[in-house]
């Protein structure tokens, strides 16, 4: 299984989760784990997803465009790179 980490950060608005999840579903990406919170009007979400059946670069580019469309910043990284960057 190929996993990726997706983070979404920005001012809270209606439909952020829906828009991101619809994009992922349409591109054959399965959500394995998800956490989201809103702090003082700012939205933060982290997802672990399975990208085994998806084109990783296409997913990342599409998420970046989706984020721009809805006014949030979306980052997508392969799980192994994410883990190496955040290892103490």
Structure report:
The chain has helices at residues 16-26, 56-70, 79-85; strands at 3-11, 30-39, 42-50, 72-78. The protein starts with a strand and ends with a helix. The model has no long low-confidence stretch (mean pLDDT 93). It is built from three helices and four strands. The protein has 88 residues and is of the alpha+beta class. The chain is globular and about 35 Å long. β2 and β3 (42-50) form a beta hairpin. The longest helix is centred in the last third of the chain and has 15 residues, at 56-70. Helix content is 38%, strand content 40%. Strands 2-3-1-4 form a four-stranded antiparallel beta sheet. α1 runs antiparallel to α2 (56-70).
Strand portion: 35-45%
The residue ranges in which pLDDT falls below 50 over 5 or more consecutive positions are none
Number of helices: 3
**How many structural domains in the coordinates?**
1
Summarize the SSE layout with pairings.
Layout: E1 3-11, H1 16-26, E2 30-39, E3 42-50, H2 56-70, E4 72-78, H3 79-85
Antiparallel strand pairs: 1-3, 1-4, 2-3
What attributes characterize this protein structure?
88 residues; alpha+beta; Alpha-Beta Plaits; 4-stranded antiparallel sheet; 3 helices; 4 strands; 40% strand; globular
């Amino acid at each position: 299984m190929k996993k990726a980490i997706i983070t979404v950060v920005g001012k809270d608005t209606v439909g952020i989760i829906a828009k991101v999840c619809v994009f992922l579903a349409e591109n054959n990406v399965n959500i394995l784990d998800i956490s989201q919170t809103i702090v003082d009007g700012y939205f933060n979400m982290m997802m672990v997803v399975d990208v085994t059946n998806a084109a990783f670069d296409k997913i990342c580019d599409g998420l970046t465009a989706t984020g721009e469309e809805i006014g949030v910043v979306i980052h997508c990284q392969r799980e192994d790179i994410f883990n190496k960057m955040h290892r103490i």
